[in-house]
Amino acid sequence: MINLKDVGKQQAEFLKDAYTHKKIAHSYLFVDPMQKKGLATAYWLACLFNCNGENKPDGTCNECQRILTGNHPDVFLVDSNGKQSLSIDQVRPLKQELSKSPVEGTRRFFFIKNAEKLTLAANNALLNLLEEPVAPVVTILITTNENQILPTVRSRTQIISFENEKVDSQTGQLLEYGLTSDEIEELGNLDSLKQEVKYLYQELFEHNELAFVRAYHLAQNATSGKQKFVFYWLKNLSLEALRQNKSIQENTHLLDILMQIDKMYSSNVSFINCLDYLILNF
Ligand SMILES: [Zn+2]
Predict the structure, then answer these.
(1) Selection from 17, 1, 13, 12 nearest residue 37 by Cα
(2) How many angstroms does the Cα of residue 269 sit away from the middle of ligand 1?
(3) Residue 26: left if φ>0, alpha if ψ -120 to 50, beta else—which one?
């Protein structure tokens, strides 16, 4: 369920102005490092077009409620659902829908979350959709990083930035390290996890066998976000030690192994196997 409280106020005002003057574009690129505001604003726009209430969009009328709960026949969301990429198979249904007229409202809405994950083939399929569409449709691509969107796609969209919403430096680093905004959000408080990773780091340096137990413990019920954070924080500890000129050789060695592990992990080697590899090779 989308909450209209998360809407970007400035951006919504801009869109409302365009709506009033009948100048809504047929494709937008919402750039939002956390995606939450961008996504909420996309749904807000769909509500604006369909709302039955007096203060459009009220978010409470039947139409708004159907949109916000994902039950409106004119509003489509494509989401990677945590996967590494958005394939052409996920874009194709939109192309089929494109030729149809709106079921109920005056316009259809296609939202693509994590648009930076679109594969090349999916991007190409999307290009037609972004060209002058035959049916009345508004396509909104939502992305964490504008630079990861193909220039051919970018140039066909109107870009609206949500980046003035400050992202704290750790969140920025985690996004850069490859965690998704959803993964970061579910991490919650990191103090105890950081402590646990620090123990693992120390046990590695002591060549203490307890490291295997620690790894096993860390792997228990670990979400993908937590797993990535463990590697991220090990690197962080190692880099911090290097900055203080501590155990230069060992820390450089550790960073080398962590880089190998990044590759292993992204080619689907399990988290616990990656940790075991680390302990055995350090
Ligand atoms: Zn409404």
Answers:
(1) 12
(2) 47
(3) alpha
**Ligand 1 geometric centre to CA of 94 (Å):** 25
Residues 189 and 109 in one domain: no
Q: Which of residues 115, 138, 166 is at a domain's end? A: 166
Model pTM score = 0.67
Range of the domain at 218: 185-281
On whether both 141 and 194 belong to a single domain, the answer is no
Q: Is residue 144 part of a domain?
A: yes
CA of 167 to the centre of ligand 1 (A): 31
What number is the average pLDDT over the span 208-234? 94
Q: How far is the CA of 108 from the centre of ligand 1 (A)?
A: 16
Tens digit of each residue's pLDDT (9 = 90 or more) over 196-206? 999 999 999 99
Ligand 1: centre distance to CA 23 (Å):
21
Helix 248-266 × helix 271-281 angle, to 10°:
150
Tokens of 167: 């992202």
